[in-house]
Amino acid sequence: MEEGRLDTFHLLIPPSAVDETMGRPVALAPAPKFQDPAVAGILQQIAGELASPGRYGGPLLVESLSNALSVLLGRREDGHEQTRRTRVAGLSDRQVAEVRAYLLENLRRNIRTKELAGLVHLSSQHFTRAFGAATGMPPHQFQLRLRVRAAAKLLKQDQDLGIEAAARQCGFTDRTHLSRAMKRHLGVRPSQAQALDVPSEAK
Question: What does the alpha-carbon distance between residue 139 and residue 156 come to, in Å, rounded to a whole number?
Fold first, then answer.
């Protein structure tokens, strides 16, 4: 932000979304201005993704962050110390496998949480929590790992395939996006993928 310039953005979350995410009704009351580092961090990530669509995680990332924000708002209303987390059962192995197969078949597409939730007949919010309980990561992170490993396999199997082409085939915006993600998840650059023993897909 330039000095003397104020940037704002507005994110509207309906109370019903907070209720569904928390698993119970939450009476959200109008609140005065407040500062919360956790809320600010989530808003910054959402703003970054909206400013550069697809650069970080696409719709799945925005929806996961919105769900996390709903949880924070719900807990803040109840009081951090008194809030009891609702236990959510994780997806079954069969359901996780079904979601994984769908993501692999649609690597190039920006998939929304609602699509994945529909595969296992859950609401978007319930799906996100159940998926995290089963896999230990949110859907957008799971999708990113699949894309990274698919790109690494392509580059290893086809030495004539360019990095930009591999990136596009696996849903990355460009070679820089792929390079950043592969370095973070596999510890190597795309140019080093030929010598890499690519791990199997995430569970």
Answer: 26
Q: What is the mean pLDDT of each run of 10 residues along the chain (203 residues)?
A: 59 67 59 64 74 67 75 61 54 96 94 93 89 91 94 89 93 92 89 73 48
Q: Please say whether the beta carbons of 60 and 5 come within 8 A.
A: no
| Tally of CB atoms within 10 A around 78 | 15
CA gap 54, 122 in Å, rounded? 25
d(CA 176, CA 178): 5
Q: Which two tokens stand for residue 40?
A: 């600010």
- Mapped onto helix, strand or coil, the DSSP state of residue 135 is helix
Distance CA(43)–CA(53), nearest Å, equals: 15
